[in-house]
Amino acid sequence: MRLTLRQLQLFHAIAETHSTTAAAERVALSQSAISSALGELEGVLDVQLFDRIGKRLMLNDNGRMLMPMARALLDAAEEIEQNFQAGEAASIHLRLAASTTIGNYLMPSLLAGFQRAWPQARVELQIGNTQDVMAQAVSLAADLGLIEGPCHDADLMVLPWMDDEMVVVAAPRHPLLTQAEGGRLGVRQLRQARWLLREPGSGTRETVEHALLPHLHQLSEVMTLGSSEAIKNAVAEGMGLSCLSLCVVQDLIRAKRLVVVSSTLPRITRRFSLVHHRRKALSGPLRAFARHCGIAAEQLQRP
Question: Pick from 150, 250, 267, 163: which is nearest to 211 by CA?
Answer without folding.
Answer: 267
